[in-house]
UniProtKB/TrEMBL annotation:
Pfam annotation, one family: M20_dimer
Highest taxon in the source lineage: Bacteria
InterPro entries: Amidohydrolase (IPR017439), Peptidase_M20/M20A_hydrolases (IPR052030), Peptidase_M20_dimer (IPR011650), Xaa-Arg_dipeptidase (IPR017144)
Positions of the Peptidase M20 dimerisation domain: 205-292
Family: Belongs to the peptidase M20A family.
PANTHER family on file: PEPTIDASE M20, XAA-ARG DIPEPTIDASE
Identification of the protein by name: Peptidase M20 domain-containing protein 2
Length: 435
C-alpha cells in the first residue's frame, strides 16, 4: 500500500506569522458604557474566585467522561449537582429534551441567559472544548446570581445539548425556552482570544438519485445508472466551487453507490454540508446546488430527491458589537486582550447553532484562547483538559459573569445592544427562512 501524500503546512505557518503581526498592532476594543458598579464587579470577581476550584473539577470531570449529543445525561447531572450545592435548582428536560436544563434567579425585569454546551465528539472526546464552555457558563451564572439583587432583572443558565450537529438550541427555541429571554451570552475555546469571530451558516442536503436496475453485462442499455448521476452531481458541485464567494463551503461524501458491479445501480446517494457567511448567501448556495442535482439527474435519465436539513439548519452568527465590547473589557482583569474582528483569519471557522439564536435576540460568542491547535483534533482535546484549559475556565467564567451583570445593571448598555440588533434587521423568522 502506498502512503497518502501529506499536505505541506507552509500556508498555515504563513497565516500564523501574519496573524501574529496583525495582533501586535490591533487596537483593543473599548466600551463607552460603564456597566455594573465597582461594588458589583468586586462581588462578582470574588464569587468567581470562590467557586473556581469547583469549576475546574467540573471541567475535568466532563473531559474525562465525554458524552455525545442528546446522550449527555451524566454531564447534566454533574452540573445539576454543582448548582444544587449553591442553592440553585436545575430543571432538567427543558423544551422536551432529556439533556437540556434551565436554572433561574430573579422574577422580573430584563432577562439575560448564559448558555452551556457539553456534548463531545465521537472518537475524539472534548476536541471542541465543550467541557470548558459548560464550566464557564456554570461559573458565570453562579457568580452573576450573587448580585441579581443589586442589578435587578433575571438571569438564567440554559443547558443546550447537541451543538455538534444536533441543533439543540434551535429545538429549544422552537419549544419556547427562549421566548422571554432578551439576550444570551456564551463563549467558545479557540487558538486566540477574539471578541467576535464569524461562524458560518450551515445546511445539510442529502441527494438521493433513483435509476433503473439492469444486468450490467447482458442488458446495460435497459438501465439508468443512479451512480453516474450521483458522480455527475459531485463533479458539478466541485466545479461550482470556483464561482462561489470565498466564505462559502460545499463539501460532501457518497453514502450509497450501489450494491454490486454487475447490476446497474438503481439508487445512489450523497450527503453535503453547505456553509455560507450570511443567511441570504446560504439560501443562494442551496438553490445553486439544487440546480446541479436536478441537472445531473436529467443528464442520466434518473430521478432525484433532495432531502434538506434532517437536523435544524444553522444560521451564521450575527455580531453584537456593544455587548461584545463589554466582554472584551471584562477580560482585561484576567490578563487577556480579545482581538477585534479581522485579525485572526475569518475562514478558520465552522458552524454553530448559536447563530440561530443570534438572529432572534442579541448574542455574543467570543473565542477564548486555550491552545494553538485546530478544533476537532486530538491535540485540542488534550489541551481542553490541561492547565491551559483550567485557566480558561476561570477566566471565561469571570468574563461571562461580569458581562451578564453589566447587561442587567446598565440600562444605557441594554439600549445600545438592542438598538444595534434592530438596525441589523431585528428578529428573523428562523424556522421559516428556508421554507
Amino acid at each position: 500500500m502506498t502512503e497518502p501524500l501529506r499536505p505541506d503546512d507552509g500556508y498555515l505557518r504563513s497565516l500564523d506569522a501574519a496573524t501574529a503581526r496583525a495582533a501586535e498592532s490591533a487596537e483593543p476594543l473599548t466600551s463607552p458604557h460603564a456597566g455594573a458598579s465597582d461594588a458589583v464587579r468586586r462581588r462578582v470577581t470574588e464569587a468567581v474566585a470562590g467557586c473556581g476550584d469547583q469549576l475546574v473539577r467540573l471541567s475535568r470531570d466532563l473531559h474525562a467522561h465525554p458524552e455525545v449529543g442528546f446522550d449527555e445525561h451524566r454531564s447534566v447531572q454533574a452540573v445539576a449537582d454543582l448548582l444544587a450545592s449553591h442553592g440553585h435548582e436545575a430543571r432538567i428536560g427543558a423544551g422536551g429534551l432529556d439533556t437540556a436544563f434551565v436554572a433561574r434567579v430573579g422574577t422580573d425585569g430584563p432577562h439575560v441567559a448564559v448558555l452551556a454546551e457539553y456534548d463531545a465528539l465521537p472518537g475524539v472526546g472534548h476536541a471542541c472544548g465543550h467541557n470548558i464552555i459548560c464550566s464557564t457558563a456554570v461559573g458565570g451564572f453562579l457568580a452573576a446570581a450573587k448580585v441579581v439583587g443589586e442589578t435587578g432583572g433575571r438571569l438564567s443558565l440554559i443547558g443546550t445539548p447537541a451543538e455538534e450537529g444536533g441543533g439543540g438550541k434551535e429545538t429549544l427555541a422552537r419549544a419556547g425556552v427562549f421566548d422571554d429571554v432578551d439576550a444570551v451570552v456564551m463563549l467558545h475555546p479557540f487558538s486566540h482570544d477574539v471578541a467576535m469571530h464569524p461562524f458560518l451558516g450551515r445546511r445539510q442536503l442529502e441527494m438521493v438519485f433513483h435509476g433503473v436496475a439492469a444486468h450490467a453485462a447482458a442488458q446495460p442499455f435497459m438501465g439508468r445508472n443512479a451512480l453516474d448521476a450521483a458522480v455527475a452531481a459531485y463533479q458539478g458541485v466541485a466545479a461550482l466551487r470556483q464561482h462561489l464567494p470565498g466564505t462559502d463551503r460545499a463539501h460532501g461524501v457518497f453514502t450509497d453507490g450501489g450494491a454490486r458491479p454487475n447490476v446497474v445501480p438503481e439508487r445512489a446517494a450523497l450527503m453535503f454540508y453547505l456553509r455560507s457567511a450570511a443567511p441570504e448567501t446560504l439560501r443562494d448556495l442551496a438553490e445553486r446546488v439544487s440546480a446541479v442535482a436536478h441537472g445531473a439527474a436529467a443528464m442520466h435519465g434518473c430521478g432525484v430527491e433532495l432531502l434538506w436539513d434532517a437536523q435544524p439548519a444553522y444560521l451564521p452568527i450575527r455580531f453584537n458589537h456593544a455587548l461584545s465590547a463589554r466582554w472584551a473589557v471584562n477580560q482585561e482583569p484576567a490578563g487577556r486582550t480579545p482581538l477585534p474582528p479581522g485579525v485572526v483569519p475569518e475562514f478558520l471557522t465552522g458552524s454553530t447553532d448559536l447563530g440561530n439564536l443570534s438572529f432572534r435576540m442579541p448574542a455574543i460568542h467570543p473565542m477564548l484562547a486555550v491552545a494553538d491547535a485546530a478544533l476537532h483534533t486530538a491535540e485540542f482535546a488534550t489541551a481542553a483538559g490541561s492547565p491551559a484549559g483550567d485557566r480558561a475556565v476561570r477566566d471565561g467564567a469571570l468574563g461571562l459573569a461580569l458581562t451578564a451583570a453589566d447587561y442587567l445593571a446598565d440600562a444605557d448598555l441594554r439600549d445600545a445592544v438592542h438598538a444595534e440588533f434592530a438596525e441589523l434587521g431585528g428578529p428573523l423568522d428562523v424556522p421559516g427562512y428556508f421554507a
